[in-house]
Specification:
three-stranded antiparallel beta sheet; 173 residues; two-stranded antiparallel sheet; alpha+beta; 2 helices
């Protein structure tokens, strides 16, 4: 027969080393989750910007089909007015025309279309002479917020500067 042990009055507790190991593990897992969440958020904003640029591109094509040309401007307010059917291609003259975008699908502040990082989309068309580009230039300056907005000869965007590395363009050149 085996001897019976009397119940011990001492409770076993975690050692300091075990507690530190658990805390370190929780901190590592939290860091991984936060990092993945930030990357997913950034990827989501990039995808949203691409979708909005595609919608704006389709609206600009419908505008061109209606009026025969894209809005000639480099002003974001004038672009918004044009896509709302309030501005003709070559002038600031007020018109009443067809609305080309669903404003509920965009973030708008003070008559300016904003990208997911809450910065205005950049648009230009025939703002310099000569304009050899057969299309417009429309893009988001991306997550870093930096941009080198110079156009190359003929109205083509300069994608080479490091500041333009994360720019998201509506059309490829």
């Amino acid at each position: 027969m085996t001897p019976c042990r009397a119940p011990s009055r001492h409770r076993q507790a975690f050692t300091l080393l075990e507690l530190l190991a658990v805390i370190a593990l929780i901190a590592i897992l939290a860091g991984i989750v936060i990092g993945v969440g930030r990357r997913a958020s950034g990827a989501g904003k990039t995808a949203r910007a691409k979708a909005e640029l595609a919608a704006l591109g389709a609206a600009l094509e419908a505008y061109k089909f209606t009026f025969g040309d894209y809005p000639r401007t480099d002003d974001e307010v004038q672009l918004h007015r044009a896509l709302l059917g309030r501005r003709g291609p070559a002038s600031d003259a007020a018109i009443t025309g067809r609305v080309f975008i669903e404003t509920a699908r965009f973030t708008i502040a003070g008559d300016v279309l904003l990208d997911p990082w809450e910065r205005p989309y950049v648009y230009t068309y025939k703002s310099t002479a000569p304009w050899n580009n057969s299309s417009y230039v429309l893009y988001s300056i991306g997550s870093d917020g930096s941009d080198s907005p110079a156009l190359l000869a003929g109205g083509f965007p300069d994608v080479a500067p490091a500041a333009n590395a994360d720019n998201i363009y509506a059309n490829r050149f």
